[in-house]
Design goal:
Number of helices: 3
Structural class: mainly alpha
Distance between the termini: 44 Å
Helix content: over 70%
Strand content: under 5%
């Protein structure tokens, strides 16, 4: 497999995992990770979705940390 194709495959896997984690985090985990923020609107959740998809390892660590 050429290096470019391998890099593209890794990027696709990273983004696919990020999208799965981000959808779960935005729908279920925001209130657990940020308990003092209050209820979040749909617009706020849509703004958080892309960033949490790209930074999914940090989001997953924050979401899984016990409080």
């Amino acid at each position: 497999m050429p290096w470019g194709a391998a890099g593209l495959l890794l990027a696709e896997i990273y983004l696919a995992l990020g999208l799965v984690v981000a959808i779960g985090f935005v729908s279920l985990g925001l209130t657990r990770a940020f308990p003092h923020s209050g209820p979040l609107t749909l617009g706020a959740r849509l703004l958080i979705l892309p960033a949490s998809a790209l930074l999914w390892p940090l989001v997953l660590r924050r979401w899984a940390s016990p409080r």
